[in-house]
Write a structure and sequence with these properties.
Radius of gyration: 24 Å
Order of helices and strands: EEEHEEEHHHEHEHEEHHEEEEEEHE
Bound molecules: adenosine-5'-diphosphate, magnesium ion
Oligomer: single chain
CATH superfamily of the largest domain: P-loop containing nucleotide triphosphate hydrolases
Structural class: alpha+beta
Distance between the termini: 47 Å
Mean pLDDT: 92
Number of domains: 2
Low-confidence stretches: none
Number of strands: 17
Strand content: 25-35%
Length: about 325
């Protein structure tokens, strides 16, 4: 189901949480909303869900104006960072809850719950209570619960934000796989790394407005503003321009137009980050592969030349 957001605006007293947001979310896409804290991501998700009403603008789902439709009638599944399960219910009962409320037959509920538990890889845990599950398992339960009602749209607000990096990475892969199986239109609020990894469309927000949207690679390669450039990946300033550190290279001091002295080296195993103080007093950092780095035998205080990699072809 496609979603069209048209001129959405939401104020809280003096705060302009969302300002004149217009965006298209394609049917079956996995769209990530990203931006700094307070940029209006959660508010935008609440406007799509109907948990908040816009001051102005419309939310259209599959051609139908849903702006004034109650959240219960929007066919949307939600999952938030701090999902609060029913603690007195086991996993299967938690997942079944939405179906019970909708008065589906018991037989149908049982079948659907086992399907969902298999989908989120929690088959063996049906009788466990939330307190007996790990953080990652609880978030998978939350997703199963959101999916139980067969929503037309799935809204996820930093669903893995509270988990450690390893579990997060696992769940990220799992979410991408799950989306590949179900193709339910999904809108995910997340950070830039997760967004670049899982999403097929990005919406970048700043101060309540959309600053750029489109496919991740296009935004990474052709950011519309310095803000998007800096937000979507590592960046440094070179000759007054925001630049990706891996688009720069170090050469011998005689080869580079721009010369400088190495002030620090950070080795991260597969890469090295070399900071150079340039002759004009500014600093820039360059990302080298481990092989490039060791081939040059670089040390702090060495004099080097810095240039853009594409200069080599020129
Ligand atoms: P994000 O999810 O990007 O961090 P939010 O959408 O939660 O941002 O918030 C956007 C702005 O709106 C923030 O300045 C926040 O403080 C404000 N805001 C959000 N919800 C409310 C609310 N219920 N009442 C008052 N201000 C709010
Ligand atoms: Mg938020």
């Amino acid at each position: 189901m496609s979603i069209s957001l048209s001129h959405l605006t939401k104020h809280y007293a003096k705060t302009h949480a969302v300002q004149d947001v217009t965006a298209e979310i394609a049917h079956g896409s996995l769209t990530a909303i990203l931006g700094p804290s307070g940029s209006g991501k959660s508010t935008l998700l609440k406007l799509i869900s109907g948990l908040e009403k816009p001051d102005e603008g419309t939310v259209t789902i599959d051609g139908e104006d849903m702006t004034h439709v109650d959240p219960r009638h929007r066919d949307i599944g939600f999952c938030f960072q701090h999902y609060a399960p029913f603690r007195h219910m086991n996993l299967a009962q938690n997942v079944a809850f939405g179906l019970k409320v909708r008065k589906r037959p018991k037989k149908e509920i049982d079948v659907r719950v086992s399907e969902l538990l298999a989908l989120v890889k929690l088959e063996g845990k049906a009788k466990s209570f939330p307190a007996q599950l790990s953080g990652g398992e609880r978030q998978r339960m939350a997703l199963a619960r959101a999916l139980a009602i067969e929503p037309r749209v799935l809204l996820l607000d930093e669903p893995f934000g509270a988990l450690d990096a390893v579990v997060r990475a696992e769940l990220r892969h799992w979410l991408k796989e799950l989306h590949g199986q179900l193709h339910v239109t999904t809108v995910l609020v997340t950070d830039q790394q997760e967004a670049m990894e899982v999403a097929d469309q990005l919406i970048v927000m700043r101060a309540g407005r959309v600053v750029q949207s489109g496919n991740p690679l296009a935004l990474y390669e052709s950011p519309a503003t310095d803000f998007v450039h800096e937000f979507l990946g590592p960046s440094t300033i070179f000759e007054g321009e925001v630049t990706r550190p891996h688009d720069l290279e170090l050469v011998s001091v005689h080869q580079g137009q721009v010369k400088g002295r190495i002030t620090s080296i950070v080795s991260l195993g597969f890469e090295a980050q070399v900071t150079v103080e340039l002759s004009d007093g500014t600093s820039t950092w360059v990302q080298l592969s481990r092989n490039e780095f060791s081939a040059m035998g670089l040390r702090v205080a060495h004099l080097v030349g810095v240039r853009r990699r594409e200069d080599v072809d020129a």
